[in-house]
Structures are given as structure tokens and as C-alpha cells.
Design brief:
Distance between the termini: 26 Å
Radius of gyration: 13 Å
Shape: globular
Strand content: 15-25%
Strand order of the largest sheet: 1-2-3
Helix content: 25-40%
Oligomer: single chain
Largest sheet: 3 strands, antiparallel
Order of helices and strands: HEEEH
Length: 91
Amino acid sequence: MNLNDMKPAELRAAMKGGTTAWGVIGSAAEHVRYKLALPKIRARRQCHCGCGTKATHAKMANGVMLGSGCELSVQRWVKDAANSIAKGGAA
């Protein structure tokens, strides 16, 4: 793993949560969540949130993709983890 090759969101998550088992094990409950834009291709899956748009972003944790969705649904997923940690609960 080379930190210089990481995207800014990945690097921020790695510095917050550590790089133990980076890219091998990812857990939404135990690792820092972040989002990354998916490569632009014509054939994309539809977002699961019901908005009717295509999935443009990936749900990431510890270097592992956990799911995908539109930008808004993925940002809500990331923010939900931050809110639950601030309240003292588990993600």
C-alpha cells in the first residue's frame, strides 16, 4: 500500500482509522466510512434509494467497496456513521 497513490478521501480515512488490513477487511461498523466516485461507464446499476438515477458513487470502508448508490444516498450513509459516533452509539 502506497499512501502517495491514494485518493484524498481514502487517505483521510486511512489517517483517521489506521491502515491495519487495508483493502482486505472492511466493516461499516468498525472502520471509517467514505465515498469514492465510480468510473464513468454507460452501463451502471440503478440506485437502490428509489430516486431512479444511476449509481455513481461507491460506499467504502478500509479500502473495500461495500456498496454503491447515487451521490446523495452514499453521502447520507457516510454522514449516518459520523452522527451515530458523535452520539456515542455504534454505527
